[in-house]
Amino acid sequence: MTDPSHLDDAHWMRRCGELAARAKASGNTPVGSLLVLDGQLLTEAAEETPSGPRPFAHAELLVVERTLQLRPRPDLQNATLYSTAEPCILCGFAVREARIGRVVVARPAGDIGSIRSRFPVLTADWVARWGSPPTVVWVDEVPL
Questions:
Q1: What tens digit of pLDDT does each residue of 72-104 get?
Q2: Quick one: which H or E segment has residue 33?
Q3: Alpha-carbon dihedral of residues 7, 80, 13, 27, nearest 10 degrees?
Q4: What is the rounded distance in angstroms from the CA atom of residue 141 to the CA atom of residue 131?
Q5: Which of 38, 28, 39 shows the shortest CA–CA distance to 62?
Q6: Nearest 5 degrees, angle CA 34-CA 35-CA 38?
Q7: Residue 144 predicted with pLDDT over 80
Q8: Residue 100: beta bridge partners?
């Protein structure tokens, strides 16, 4: 039997791949991200660094900011953040502050990652005010 969440993940990761390609074509780091709640796309973003004027215009951070602008303090425990890359430490912090319940990523970010680095803020369970960390799902590749 096929896991339906896997099919949804593939669908949304394809869109992330398109956003990452747009970022790359603009001279930016090839990262695309989006946020889905109850099967509906809330917001999406392509990375805007390093060519943009804002040094923190990471795709994941833009998605969180845009979501909170549209829906101040929504309940995102059932939301899924998709990203072509492991969120960096800054973005991992934003995901935790927004209380997003699930994160799907395609490739690690090395020393700056918020999951597999020495500073795993996305998966930390020792920050009481954040509650439980989100579920993290790694996909093998971004289907285009």
A1: 777 899 999 999 999 999 999 999 999 999 999
A2: strand 32-37
A3: 180
A4: 30
A5: 28
A6: 140
A7: no
A8: none
User: Cis omega before residue 50 (within 30°)?
Assistant: yes
Instruction: Give CA separation, 138 vs 73, 74, 104, 134, 142, in Å.
Output: 27, 25, 6, 13, 10
Structure tokens, 140? 């093998």
Listed in sequence order, the residues at least 6 apart from 60 whose beta carbon sits closer than 8 Å to its beta carbon are: 31, 33, 45, 81, 83, 87, 88, 91, 94, 95
Percent above pLDDT 90 for the chain: 79
In angstroms, the CA 19 to CA 112 distance is 21
Spatial distance between the Cα atoms of 82 and 80, rounded to a whole number of angstroms: 6
- The residue length of the chain stands at 144
